[in-house]
């Protein structure tokens, strides 16, 4: 039986748990070490703890608590860093090119271009069930596969890139489209765009509901990715539509900086965003994301 890693609210604060079936076991007690009180602590010792987790999963013991009785937090409440891929799904880029009447490059690899990323603050992270208040009239949804680093890595290659990834999860890269451009700035100005207002606000990076170990996934590049708004299917694609694969993104990022345990990489969103059809989220809307068997991430807009 496979396990998942969760963070949940307890009397002692946010606590790491091991989800086996429908029961959650406190990681610190199971693993016998205070360093595993948090999921980040587990990830920081990933090479050591993997075998312990696998052994426990085969024969769970101790006092498990029903998952349904717990309030889940984001699996990593404060990741060390969050890197987000821009324009990385062929179907999404094609739709945006048509909507904006632009000649966007649908195959940047053919012209020697590399993956590019922007950064979200860890303060943006929330868990499933959290209400989002963005104060935006053009709040958009973006379902994304998130990679979670478990092993410190630099200068990765395509052959070993995924070896540094401990787990994956659902993510929503909420975007306040009305705050992207500073209207008072000339369109030629390098200071035209405000990425903080556009991408970084409280609740703009829901993660969860839990972490699924990468070794429990057959192929990270062949996962269905879907998003619903009020039970209406808006995004329906597959990670096979990525322009740059997960491994290629890791190679590019690690060529510039060191990746650390707990870092999160959002790998891009497919077609079906609100910007493509001119429809945006309203108070009371419920957004639901499910990538393959990674659980369901649900958030409500206030």
What does this structure look like?
The chain is an alpha+beta fold. It is 18% helix and 30% strand. The radius of gyration is 19 Å and the shape is globular. The model has no long low-confidence stretch (mean pLDDT 94).
Radius of gyration: 19 Å
The CATH class of the largest domain, by name, is Alpha Beta
Distance between the termini: 38 Å
Give the H and E element order: EEEHHHEEHEEEEEEEHEEEHEHEE
**How would you write the strand order of the largest sheet?**
6-5-16-10-11-13-7
Structural class, by secondary structure, is alpha+beta
Number of helices: 7
Average of per-residue pLDDT values: 94
The total of beta strands comes to: 18
The major pleated sheet works out as: 7 strands, mixed
- The level of helicity is 10-25%
- State the domain count: 2
Stretches with pLDDT under 50, minimum 5 residues: none
Superfamily (CATH H level) name of the largest domain: Fumarylacetoacetase-like, C-terminal domain
Strand content: 25-35%
Identify the CATH architecture of the largest domain. Alpha-Beta Complex
Shape designation: globular
Oligomer: single chain
Remind me, CATH topology of the largest domain?
Fumarylacetoacetate hydrolase, domain 2
Provide the fold topology.
Blueprint: E1 3-10, E2 13-20, E3 23-26, H1 27-31, H2 39-43, H3 46-58, E4 65-66, E5 82-85, H4 90-100, E6 117-120, E7 125-126, E8 131-132, E9 139-140, E10 143-149, E11 165-172, E12 175-176, H5 195-199, E13 205-213, E14 224-229, E15 232-238, H6 246-256, E16 264-266, H7 274-277, E17 286-291, E18 296-301
Parallel strand pairs: 5-16, 7-13, 8-18
Antiparallel strand pairs: 1-2, 2-3, 3-4, 5-6, 9-12, 10-11, 10-16, 11-13, 14-15, 14-17, 17-18
């Amino acid at each position: 039986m496979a396990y998942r890693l969760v963070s949940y609210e307890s009397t002692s604060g946010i606590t790491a748990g091991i989800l086996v079936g429908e029961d959650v076991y406190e990681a610190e007690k199971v693993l016998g070490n205070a360093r595993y009180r948090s999921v980040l602590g587990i990830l920081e010792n990933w090479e050591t703890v993997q075998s312990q987790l696998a052994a426990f999963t085969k024969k769970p013991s101790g006092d498990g608590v029903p998952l349904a009785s717990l309030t889940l937090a984001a699996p990593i409440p404060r990741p060390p860093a969050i890197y987000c891929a821009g324009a990385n799904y062929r179907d999404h880029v094609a739709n945006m090119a048509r909507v904006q009447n632009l000649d966007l490059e649908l195959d940047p690899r053919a012209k020697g271009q590399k993956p590019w990323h922007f950064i979200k603050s860890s303060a943006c992270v929330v868990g499933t069930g959290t209400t989002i208040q963005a104060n935006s009239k053009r709040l958009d949804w973006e379902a994304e596969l998130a990679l979670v680093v478990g092993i410190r890595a630099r200068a990765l290659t395509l052959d070993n890139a995924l070896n540094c990834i401990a787990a994956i999860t659902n993510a929503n890269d909420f975007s306040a489209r009305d705050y992207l451009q500073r209207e008072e700035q000339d369109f030629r100005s390098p200071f035209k765009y405000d990425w903080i207002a556009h991408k970084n606000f409280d609740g703009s990076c829901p993660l969860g509901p839990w972490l699924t170990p990468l070794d429990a996934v057959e192929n990270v590049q062949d996962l269905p990715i879907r998003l619903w708004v009020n039970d209406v299917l808006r995004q329906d694609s597959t990670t096979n539509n990525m322009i740059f694969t997960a491994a290629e993104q890791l190679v590019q990022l690690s060529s510039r900086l060191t990746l650390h345990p707990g870092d999160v990489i959002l790998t891009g969103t497919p077609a079906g965003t609100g910007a493509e059809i001119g429809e945006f989220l309203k108070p009371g809307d419920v957004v639901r994301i499910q990538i393959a068997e990674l659980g369901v991430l649900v958030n409500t807009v206030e």
